[in-house]
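Batch 3, record 17
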Amino acid sequence: MFYRAHVLIEMTSNSIHLGASQVKERLEREIAQAGLSNEVKVLETGPLGRGVPSPFLMIYPDNIMYAPVTVSEVREIVSEHLLKGRPVERLIVSETAPALKEGYFRPSPLAKEKRVVLRNSGLIDPGSIEDYIAQDGYQALGKVLSMSRQEAINIVKDSGLVGRGGAGFPTGLKLEFTMKAPGEEKYVVCNADEGEQGTFKDRLILEGDPHSIVEAMAICGYAVGAGEGYIYIRAEYPESIRAVEKAIESATDTGLLGDGILGADFSFQVKIRQGAGAYICGEETSLLESIEGKRGEPRIKPPYPPQAGLWGKPTAINNVETLANIPPIILNGADWYKSIGTPTCPGTKVFTLTGNVNMLGLIEVPMGITLRELLYDVGGGIRGGRQMKVVQTGGPSGGTMTPDMLDVPMAFDTLAQFNSALGSGALTVVDDTHCIVDVVKNFCEFFLHESCGKCTPCRIGNKRIVEILDRMQRGRGRPGDLDLLRILGENMKTTSFCGLGQAAPNPLMKCLDYFQEEFEKHVTEHLCDCQVCEMKPKRKEVGV
Amino acid sequence: MAKVAAEVNRKDEQENVATLYLDGREIQVPASSSVLEACKSAGIHIPTLCHMDGLTPYGGCRICVVEIEGQPTLAAACVTPVREGMKIQTSSKKVREARKANLELLLSNHPLDCQLCDRNQFCELQDLAYELGVRKIRFEGEQQHHEVDISSPSVKRDLDRCILCGRCIRTCSEIQSVFAIDFANRGFESYISPSLGLPLGESVCINCGQCIHACPTGALSEVEHVEKVWDALNDPEKTVVLQTAPAIRVSIGEPFGMPQGTISTGKMVAALRRLGFDYIFDTNFSADLTIIEEGTEFITRLTQGGVLPLITSCSPGWIKFMEHFYPELMENVSTCKSPQQMLGAVVKTYFAQKIGVEAKDIVMASIMPCTAKKYECQRDEMRASGYQDVDYTLTTREAARMLREKGINLAEMPEEDFDEPLGLSTGAAAVFGATGGVMEAALRTVYEKVTGETLPKLDFMDVRGMDGVKEAIVDVKGTPVRVAVAHGLGNARTLLDTVRAGEVTYHFIEIMACPGGCIGGGGQPIPTNLDIRMKRIEAIYNVDKSFPVRKSHENPAIQKLYEDFLGEPNGEKAHHLLHTHYSCREKM
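Prediction for the assembled complex:
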């Protein structure tokens, strides 16, 4: 059947919250009523990224995008645009996204944008394996099956790809360690337990292009010699789970998963495991414990997962975004990948912009972009023309960037030099109307909630830190409180069992240094210049 | 050739050795050591809390941190493997401050009422605060509060005192394979709980009390019967009878500063008599009785084609374990009550008649090395006289507490004897207190009963010692009798799984729930560890050797009991008073 027009509607957890299902239903009804069912086809697609309001409608071949679309606007779009061929100027994207005003997507990408991971997202129907194959999908898998394991791993090693989950460990080395580890039985695991505050890139990748993850897992499976892969998705991501389930099913039906894939002597299957809401399970060894059905608590390292991972077998565990990079690297080669980003940290990074910035959402840019470019060129500046106070990268456990770091290139290695971190790529922008004590307490409360409780410094330390910050906010700060915070933070950093506890005091410690005066004012003068903290001791309610 | 082999050996040894620098001092340790083990071998003391020998290292308390050159964070010595050339600082400023900070954090969430705690002076947390010189807790704040769980007949849980070291959990799972408890909840709200949040008394807990030995603080302790026993002693209407288990006499000296492994039978009897008990009998007497009953049962099953292997039934922790996890072996387990219960039944019938006191006016108390005995004495099946066979069970620790309260120093007591007639026993009964002891005592009697000949050698060395599962084949006049012994329920599980799978066949199996047997029971003095267990076992065998009579069937008091009262072994009266039955329980 030939259709003269295709309408892509964004179906993600975000857009569904904002009424995408109702819009789609209305769209299909209006199209049928207009007698266009044989001429116009409605398809689902993933997120587009870069701050486009949800849900959006993309109309091909006209390359016109409407966003955000509400149910009441559907009739007009159908009768004017689809029936009469007159685009509804008024509804073409939003005023807040001037770069998209013309509605043309492909001819004019954002100046800073570079799509590798999100190459298909928002362009194809994630539920259609044919769509993915039409975009060269599963070609990389075919290519590695004609190589030796070492050859395949060498491409990834040479590309300089490092893990995108936050730690930045070289992916090729991880695969090589797993491949070389003794043992017949090995596993590939995809970490999709995205739990950092403000991070939602993995969800959007999984919803927008699930086949790229399935393909990458099969590639890794071949490279390390694993027959089975697990993808651990947090249960709060039902749409991701649905998308991946469907992708696994159609890949299996097509013979791209299962026994003797593409006629090669390679069998691989992928299983989904759902998380139960614990942040600690994003820590790789806790995740493995959870897959095994145990309480999510970190394991003693060494041994690391490539030596002894899932059920004690060598395991290559990678983040969603890391995996999404692998098929294009295999197809286009290491040199191509190295041409993107910085010489020491090649490739792109998917950022999620949240907080007090004009344009919110997903953006993929080359490594090495500065915070200034991200905030002002991509993000459209701080809301209300305010000043930036701090930007937290990669969620609470990532790095804290202060205004003096606006021009530092954003890459794993460069940020580390500034005692900060890229983390998972969340950018939580905080403007100068916020009190730093309040902001820091918010981060610390997150860790208090998410600490697994295994080790003393994290279990009790987080509690004591939040208590001290809380009393500072209520005007009950005591002399010496800042020293106590430093002692507690330093102790957590140096003695916690796992990365979570070691990273938990990062925002606190960084802000204690940079905003020392503001903290001191809370303690000594009981003053909050931002007028956020109540500075009133809690009193017992007096009966009326 | 020999020279070459020696060189190869030497080379192997060299390869398996790592050179470290501990506080600047070069030392060599096996390459498989942890930093903690390396420090220990070099005589450097590293404080620990969550670490316990014999359990998987955990690395949770962060007290044992050390500084390793080139590493930005401190490393927990217990879980860090050594590496060639490692440079370790064990008492740098950073290390000392970190240890103190973590200890203060633990103390900030712990009630500081040591005077009111039954582990006062036996508490690792208290010791550590002293050792590290904590004078002030800088990080005060909210503390976690939980109801004290007294649902179990044996183990009391006061979670406010719990420091979440997880030693009880690992003991319950790794040593005992019971898996009754685990961490629940998360972060600051973490606590230790039986499955599904049930109270301990409704869980699969088998009441062995090994978790109490594992607990570094006062979070776990026995459910006390002390007040009830004092009340009975102060009640003029009651005749209060006491029995003491075989394992008490080799451990009760410890709380009074006597060396581990001291035999203090006579001093113990003298001290307890001064508490005001009317009669002090010996559970060893009924251990001999158990051998007659269980030996007879075994011979019957062996010669008349009954269910084999026969499995011993003296250990109430093991019995509950069997009821939960191996109900299909119920027919294999001996129907004999344990010696504690047999003595209770005999006291409230035979002895009551003899002294002309009604059973209702007798209070039968016991001192046991065991917390499961508290549960056993309350079982519905254990009321042969119409009243509980045994009313109250004190642990060795509780007995020591009563003596302390009365101001009696056991070490300074004279030697006195048990009361007649239920105080007379043999060496065979003495060894009941150690793993393999019931088997050894039974074999001494069974051999002579079956063959009608005198046993040439009384000591069955194959069933002694701390190996988890022990086996022996005893030639009983041409019939090879295959026996096995397991102690610690994890070992029992290993053994029983091979039996259930039909991989091996035995005639007779002894199982004791606690590592080392009763001398290592959950009611024994704190500390109880491998070293102390071995010393107590040695003492037990010395008690055996000191007896002129070392076979149960030669105990004249036992012979008289059958003549005067019981009739035949396994006869109708014996069956009514001395045997019991079991029931199937849920696995969760």
